[in-house]
Structures are given as C-alpha cells and as structure tokens.
Design brief:
The chain is of the alpha+beta class. It is built from eight helices and five strands, in the order H-H-H-H-H-H-E-E-H-E-H-E-E. Helix 1 crosses helix 2 and helix 5 runs antiparallel to helix 6. 28% of the residues are buried.
Length: 208
C-alpha cells in the first residue's frame, strides 16, 4: 500500500486478483502458471474461459470471475472515449481496442459510429470470422450508419497472428467501404488493425 502497484511485478498483481477469487490459498504458483501459459497479463485476461479453466488450479467459476476483471477494464476504457471527440482521444481508443481485441483467436470486425462532432454514438461488432479472415459487407455497415444518423466511421479489426500489417484484401475492403460511405456523405476516418505486436493505421500508411 505504501509503495503503490508500480512496485509489484506482474505475477504479484495477478496474485492479488486471484487471492480475491480464491481466498485462503497460496495462489502465487497459479499466477506464475497463468503468465507462463498466456505470456502477459493481457494474454491472461483475454484468454477464453475454456482455456483458462484447463490451467491447473483454476476452476470454471474462478475463470469466469477472472474474465469479469477483463470486462471491467474494457468498460472503463470505453467510458474514457464516450462524450468526447474521439479524434482527440486517439490513444484511449487504441488502448480500448488493444484490451478488447488484441488476443482474440478469430478475426473480428468492429465499427465505431460517430456523430457530426466526432463523438461516439456506438461501438458495434459487425462480423466474426476465422483465424485469418473476416467477411465484411460494406452495404450493412453503411446501412447501420444511416440507422444511427452517424456522420463518420472508424473501422477496426484484429489479426490473431499478432502481426497488424494490412493485407491486400484489407486494403481493398477498406476502399470499398470508403466509396460506399462517400455516396451517403459519411466519412471513414481510419481503418485500424490490432495485433499482439502493435497496431497499424491504414490512414497513416496512405492506404486509404
């Protein structure tokens, strides 16, 4: 308490969380086992329940409680970009996307819908695909933008491989979406790809 959480190693922070879930038990070996299995704190928190409960010492109910901490973190991060101009809160947007998507085992495509002031109206998943592909339908994205009276979009999807480098299919899909949105005067600010190794912005790379 005197030194603050920055004085603790990752396994010690995880140990504190686990002790609240599994009281009256030495959970240090479990904390180290989880980090050894999933690599990082974010890897542990992002792991599916089915994988977590197979780690020795963690029951199914304990795995669900651990996932609640992950959900709580996501809720706090998304609150940080609500009622604010998202373009002025770019790092917070990236933090949220990394926590929520970087360790997903299948590709997911999300859309952030913004109003005329670039404030967040909604953040919605559009599609979930396979380990290396997700099918996106520009017509459905634009249709939803009209339903929400959105003036701008930010596209986000993840690469489960960990490498956020955009593929040619990513670039072509983005151009199709930009063209479809433009006909209805909806702006696509960026398409961000999230990976465990970082992120890529198609706007910054000059690919849209």
């Amino acid at each position: 308490m005197n030194a603050g959480p920055q004085s603790l190693q990752d396994y010690e922070l995880l140990e504190l969380v686990l002790f609240s879930i599994i009281p009256r038990k030495d959970v240090k070996p479990l904390a180290k086992r989880l980090l050894g299995t999933f690599g990082t704190l974010l890897g542990v928190m992002s792991a599916p329940v089915d994988q977590l409960k197979h780690v020795e010492g963690l029951s199914g109910s304990s795995a669900v409680q651990l996932k609640a901490f992950h959900a709580l973190t996501q809720r706090m991060l998304v609150e940080e970009i609500k009622q604010k101009q998202v373009l002025n809160s770019w790092q917070k947007l990236l933090d949220y996307c990394r926590v929520s998507m970087a360790h997903e085992t299948r590709e997911q495509f999300h859309v952030f819908y913004l109003d005329r002031k670039n404030q967040l109206i909604a953040n919605e998943p559009q599609q979930t695909g396979t380990v290396d592909h997700v099918q996106v339908y520009p017509r459905e994205v634009v249709k939803r933008a009209l339903e929400l009276s959105a003036s701008a979009l930010i596209l986000v999807h993840n690469h489960p491989s960990g490498d956020p480098t955009p593929s040619q299919a990513d670039v072509e899909m983005t151009k199709e979406l930009v063209a479809a949105a433009k006909t209805l005067e909806v702006t696509v600010h960026d398409h961000i790809i999230i990976g465990r190794d970082g992120h890529a912005s198609l706007r910054a790379m000059g690919l849209m």
